[in-house]
Amino acid sequence: MSDELMAQARTGEDGAPPKRPRGTLRAWRKRVRRLLRSPATMAVGGSAIYRGLRLVHATQKEAPGSTDWRARLTAEHPAIVGLWHGQHLLAPFFRPAELPYVALLSRNADAEMNAAVVARFGIETVRGSGGRAGPVRAQKGGAKALIALRRYLARGFGVCMIADVPKGVPRDAGLGIVTLARISGRPVLPSAAVTSRRYVVESSWDKTTVPLPFGRIAVVVGDPIHVAADADAEEMEAKRREITLAIEAANVAAERLVGRVA
Prior knowledge:
seven-stranded mixed sheet
């Protein structure tokens, strides 16, 4: 075969490189996803994030005016610590190490890394979606997750729970946290933690915040919110709005303490 014919065979008649079959590309992407989500990758990534967060925590100075969160969490223990998506990396920063805690994490594969990090902080995990669950209907294993969390509360574990619903409206509490408070009899503590130095992932739906070293951290924990065991749908909705406003108020107060809000 001539050099010209060999070149055409390699590049195609129009001179462009031959296209990779779609099936081959799909298989390659699947292999990459499997590798990234493998237990070994999760273990290495979780360890790296954990060490990074420990470094960041060690270099933070607490902003004057922050809540005495240790005293508040100890006094109300076991309670449901409610905060917004996007601030979950800061949750271990204001957890009293001497108190047992469990965190609710999504069941999807993307949450595996979060689970690996949380485990290294000595926090138990329950996998499920508690955001949309209400007194009647539950989605994505929400009912099972809430029952598991209620059992943990009964055993004396505090619960760290993201209040807003994944991929929903940011900073708008779902009924899951209200339902847990109703069935457990334990209060919700509206909470927020922010740092003065941070990187915000603008492309993420919840504007995930990555804390950076050598800054100030502000932690605000509001007054406990109780939900009656016999709360009807109307009262549940009222409590949902109350929790939404209380967590956002804590968030705004924390932002002000680090000089982010005028």
